[in-house]
Amino acid sequence: MARFPSPSAPFLFLLFSLLPLLSLSTVDQPYKTYIIRIDSQSKPSIFPTHYHWYTAEFTNPLKSSTLTTPPDHAATLSQHPSVLAVIEDQRQQLHTTRSPQFLGLRNQRGLWSESDYGSDVIIGVLDTGIWPERRSFSDANLGPVPARWKGICEVGERFTARNCNKKLIGARFFIKGHEAASGGVGPITPINETVEFKSPRDADGHGTHTASTAAGRHAFGASMEGYAAGIAKGVAPKARLAVYKVCWKNAGCFDSDILAAFDAAVKDGVDVISISIGGGDGISAPYYLDPIAIGAYGASSRGVFVSSSAGNDGPNLMSVTNLAPWIVTVGAGTIDRNFPADVALGNGKKLSGVSLYAGSPLSGKMYPLVYPGKSGVLSASLCMENSLDPITVRGKIVVCDRGSSARVAKGLVVKKAGGVGMILANGISNGEGLVGDAHLIPTCALGSDEGDAVKAYVSSTSNPVATISFKGTVVGIKPAPVVASFSGRGPNGLSPEILKPDLIAPGVNILAAWTDAVGPTGLDSDTRKTEFNILSGTSMACPHVSGAAALLKSAHPDWSPAAIRSAMMTTANTFNNLNQPMTDEATGNSSSPYDLGAGHLTLDRAMDPGLVYDITNNDYVNYLCGIGYGPRVIQVITRSPVSCPAKKPLPENLNYPSIAALFSSSAKGAKSKTFIRTVTNVGQPNAVYRLTVQAPKGVTVTVKPPKLVFTEAVKKRSFIVTITANTRNLILDDSGALFGSISWSDGKHVVRSPIVVTQIDPM
């Protein structure tokens, strides 16, 4: 099955798209989809259009309508002189009311007032679609749709043009990559008769949640079955939304569909793209083989701000994903709201955890307690499907270890086996990091230490008993924010010269709109309906930054995506609400830039950052040259031909708002690294900024000049940072690095950049 644009497709679309997408298969092999990057400028003049060229040159000549091909056809295509890259279509995954206030938007003032801030900005959300009837997507009192909008409201199953309005101004769905991967047998491969819609309608809930987090309207009386009751609202309530459904329930998100959505969103006219999607396990492909990085570059190079989730594989080092420097990579932090629950043991001990259970309580009754892991069977300790013996667990509270299956799914396993409740125990990898879930049975999630205490109690007596009590919603929690244990961590495994994540935002226990297609657990057996749901993940943090970018773009329409990111990073907060350094939920220790990047998003400060570090498209090209990519490889990313300077650029000189100094572990004596940065004054025209340095321990940091003077005529100033270290004398922390910062201040603004110093082994 070969898929190309129609002969009348505009040339712009050909330039934007990674086309054609070829589905290659054999009788003995499942379908595979390949994304083919072709140098569009090499079209022979004999062909009137790119369509005719693609059809004649790149399809199998034996079968032009349904392309069946020998297994080596993809390899053959890669040798064609006009083919820049052949990328196998991969499946990506989702990185699954008070939080906007926690960003600094308080008391209905400033950006959070009833002004029209953001109404001229369009946020494109690449996700699972949308449930358009939710109050969060009302267009009441919104003005006309921006005249520059070119998008559509694509009709489909249970979705008509009337589902769009002046708030939800566009909706599309992308399914061809999924169909090809499914062997062309239909839109969705049935999985346990899962409900899904071949339309922009959201059967999963994730997309509805992220869209309303970014730009949901005020919704009074919001809650998830009584939890987090109050007014739900997104970060940019008056921004317009355009949704691009690229993920399908229980089927994932295919690269080719994601790429098509990126291209459509840019062509439609979005200002911000929010994508809470990525790989797992901290494994990142090179930029030229990463369709999210490629699609994001196409957007960023045309002035579209792209924010993406950092992944949920923390607290492991080097677990951060979505690493391209033109993407804003967002980790997750807690907010000052929690949903406490307690476990009372028969020995009198009371252990504190969290829960969003809203059913009938246990009312203090003590029940027998059992830990299936005592048997030594791993699947039983994890409460996997069909692993529990009903005779053993019936009528009891069951202790289940976290991991390998969804937290809520473990509760369903316990319920099916006749258990009356569940204690969900963290392991060492999750530490003390807890998230609430809307469990089907009475459940309390406990940290690693408390979980061990429960298991020790079970082993200490022949008749262990326990009960669980639920405390509802508590606000004013301190300390907050705390870096979520699951949030993807640095260092950047692909380009260590670039610090990732860039920053963190609220991503734990976030209340936002939800689909009617599935209950709050997302399980097919959960028949409950709820207008709002509470979720955790860097998926939830990403749209906070997307909404913030919309407000910043509205206030500063001439700012580039890099300038907006700089404003967020250099004004980010590294202290909690106890005015102490932020801590790591997994360990309780102070967090570092590997955990939180530049810090926690503080939007009111980002509105007026004073100085910004801007980056041009040519700067990114020079960076790619600096990390060793040749012009032809770079063209896979940039789509248009490029050239590299005769002198290889230094990748660390990309004008990023952070600095990472890499020293060889085999170096002898003191060694120095030099970095060049340029700042642009976006504050008062006449200003003088002076330097403050917090050098990493055992490291010398010098900056020249130590003072930056700006005038009406001089808006840009460059400075040189020299970092000197004797690697044999450095005492690195557990992450293998040392941390510091440089800050510029004019007395009103503080423009802070984190510094990372680390050692690398020689090649």
UniProtKB/TrEMBL annotation:
Domain Peptidase S8/S53: 118-588
GO biological process terms on file: proteolysis; response to symbiotic bacterium; response to symbiotic fungus
Active site residues of this protein: 127, 206, 539
Name of a matching Pfam family: Peptidase_S8
Signal peptide range in chain numbering: 1-25
A Gene Ontology cellular-component term: apoplast
Cellular localisation: Secreted, Extracellular space, Apoplast
GO molecular function, one term: serine-type endopeptidase activity
Location of the Subtilisin-like protease fibronectin type-III domain: 653-757
Purpose of the protein: Required for arbuscular mycorrhiza (AM) development during AM symbiosis with AM fungi (e.g. Glomeromycota intraradices).
Name of the protein this chain belongs to: Subtilisin-like protease
Species: Dovyalis caffra
Phylogenetic lineage: Eukaryota, Viridiplantae, Streptophyta, Embryophyta, Tracheophyta
